[in-house]
Amino acid sequence: MLSKQIGLVNQILQDMRNLYFICLFNFIGGVLGAQEQTDTITIDQNIDEVSYKAFDKIIQRDLNFLLFENIAPQQGISFTANDKGSQLNLSGILYSGYKGIYTINAELSSTKGVYLFDEDGGEKGTVTFNYFKAYHRKYFRKSIEDQDKMRGAHFALEKIFHAYAKLDTLKTILDKGTNEPEIESNYLKAKTKLQSLSRTHLNSQDVHAFGQLDNFSYKMVKSKAGDKTVKITYDWKPARMNVKKKYDLKSLERFCEHIEYIHKKLEEELIEYEIQTAKKNWETKHTVFFSLHPYYTRESLDLYEIQDDFSNSFQEISGDLYGIKINFLNYSYERLAKMKWWRPHQFFLQVGGNLGRISNRSNFREQQLAFIDTLETSNGTVQNITSRTGFTSPSGRYQYGIGFGLHTAVYVFPWKYPFGLFGQISYSDLNFSSGSGVSDSRTIPLRAGFLLNLKNKKKDVDRITIQAFADRSNLRLDPSASDDWRFGIGVGLPIKF
């Protein structure tokens, strides 16, 4: 008995949905003056809550938010200072779309403040091009009622029908005044676009809905007389048309505007409606993306070598470094609804590696060097002290090598509050030629600390991210006076340029 009742209820719901479409198009037909024939429109009942294009748009926005407005303090403008020096990062977006995200990053570092050129403290400037592409994404959602699931399809059906009716009406008006091939060509392209939208937003396999739109008639708009020549610029080519008598120039303008609307704006309206309608149903979202980072670095320092003349003891050295960094795995998780306490509010994992040309610059130490010139005079001994900052190294030579590394980073916000934790650990293997006099180096740097996000006035976007951290330059060494735990603060301003 219960199963029969459930079946009866489902049948009633199905009949109500069919009745909705009949009423909808009777209403639309009445508004447009259509009274000849009405029919139901077939919509795939298994349609997803959002179309694949709307879902791609969601992922694109999420990736932008994650990279530029969330927990990545190295995007936008950031400044980091600790006992080893300071570093300034500047970044901007070159392109953001369905093909991925392209950005550029400039990094300036110094031992005494951040400058483009820092003769006393050494300088290092790096330019990096970045590419990000999501290759797997998944949202988990609550149980969705059929009525909610179809709401986006109802909206799409109405928008596509109105666009088609207006397009066909204007085309009929223009055909009465002239017979221009450009009109027919652009009409067919716009109609093909509407068919594509119907396939995407209404039917997963076929365009049943669009195929039945011709069954609905609409009111013809009377044209006004005109005898002018007008230049029309289409998206694909410009054309010059002779507007004959009894030709409605305003209808021609409206036709051009409507063509542009169908090609550029209609789908964005459909996608935005789907996104906003589905927003309340998401529980968690998972995004996996890949990133590629080719870079070029220019570094310089004043190298000190003992000479008889102190002024000739300094040699300015410049080096050109380049390579590539690849993040094989970037995984982002965010909880959007109330769940068990042990499920974190936000989690981010990154795993990658790098390969490139490196130098032994890290072996050099900055020193304040002084030369005392003694001169005996009749009045006594006169000392002239000359001082200058320079870099020294046990090897005494600036050398190139090959570097390889692996790295991983984890960011966790356990709760919705703006406090979080992060950790970064990496492995670096630097190799130099046997005759260079420079020893190979293998290090395991570590950094860990706390995160604090400060939001904007609306409390919907993180505008400042503060890191308080401790780090070690090499876990393979026992802590000592020169290689102990160090503490620093990083401040990020995730602002789009």
Task: Give a verbal description of the structure.
Helix 3 runs antiparallel to helix 7. Helix content is 27%, strand content 41%. It is built from seven helices and 17 strands. The protein has 497 residues and is of the alpha+beta class. The strands form three sheets. It has a twelve-stranded antiparallel beta barrel with strand order 1-2-3-4-7-8-9-12-13-15-16-17. Strands 5-6 form a two-stranded antiparallel ribbon. It has a two-stranded antiparallel ribbon with strand order 10-11. The protein folds into two domains: 40 residues, no CATH class; 336 residues, no CATH class. The N terminus and C terminus are likely disordered.
Question: Could you list some keywords that capture this structure?
Answer:
alpha+beta, two-stranded antiparallel ribbon
- How much of the sequence is in beta strands? 35-45%
- Physical arrangement of strands within the biggest beta sheet: 1-2-3-4-7-8-9-12-13-15-16-17
Strand-pairing-aware structural class: alpha+beta
Task: Enumerate the spans where pLDDT stays under 50 for 5 or more consecutive residues.
Answer: 1-39, 70-75, 113-122, 217-246, 493-497
Distance between the termini: 65 Å
- Structural domains: how many: 2
Mean pLDDT: 70
Compute the number of helices: 7
The largest sheet, given as strand count, sense and whether it forms a barrel, is: 12 strands, antiparallel, barrel
User: What series of H and E elements makes up the topology?
Assistant: HHEEEEHHHEEHHEEEEEEEEEEE
Judging from the principal axes of the Cα atoms, what is the shape? Answer: elongated
Helix content: 25-40%
